[in-house]
Amino acid sequence: MENWKIEPIEAFFKEDCLFKGNNLFYSREWISLITEEYGFNFKAVVKEDTHPEDSLLIFAEVDDIFGKRLVSLPFSDYTEPFALDDLEIVSILSFLKEKYYDWTITFKFHGQLEELEKINYTNIRQAVCHRVNLRGSVDELWNRTSHAFKKGVKKAQRNQVRVEIINTDKGIEMFHRLLTNLRRKKFHILPQPKSFYLSFIKNFINKGQGNVWVAFMDDKPIASALILNNGSALFDKMGVSDEEYLEFRPNNLLLWEIMKSGNQQAFEYLDMGLSQINYTGLIRFKDSMGGVQTPINYYRYTPECYDIEREGKIKNLLSGVTGLLVRPEIPDEVVQEAGNLLYKYFC
Hints:
By secondary structure, the chain is of the alpha+beta class.
């Protein structure tokens, strides 16, 4: 049995060996951004009597209307614990279950770990992550895409869709307007606060670790993507588009330009993030880019003392309030304020 200890995350920010590589959600920039926006208390589990680079699992303590819970990690597609094998991960999550005996624990794992179910963790969500290989020549990159993807790129070009990088507040405004409209009209959910996305400028973009890409038809923004980079990888943190212009395939051209740029800068791959397994159209599109699928599984431990019925009532209340707030007649400024107030509970 390994001996583990828990330390505040700040204890590791000075460790140059940590937060390197391609692990975006364990990066100093990402954790700082989430902390600034939502005020979560991040901690790390490490082995006793070893250097932190030998083992690290980061989690956040969240105490809100749902009660006390550990989340690894909030508002992150997945987690990839640093330098740990599967048995060590199981050992850590068993340790956390004992240490936080009356807290729920959610572990978002890039992979599959059935052993967790033997220690009373339940698999609550299954998804996939796509990564697009950016290595080789541009011709090789192009040839790895499907016929349908190529056809979409050419259609966007014929219709004079153009792509720009706009790394300013204005670029974030364009991105967030598309995000708000898409979430309201298609998904009937609140947008994440604009302040969250504006903070990417300070934490990533001004450090040369990200770009706001925008696709235009004439002068109208019709698609956008927030692309971050960490180590030798690019990460599509969020992509959005105007559904009225999808017939012109702006996303194909937008992502092709991003892929070419990443290739020219010698990045190894583009991480396209999480896709729920029932989003077959989205998965098919990411496949068409040449993306390779890997599993994501969310595991949750629920202590016997936890009031699951109360949790269900709160979720139903939030869902009902959200449904009212995203109705077409509700002004955008009200929707924005609602997102500012409520979005933190969706972590």
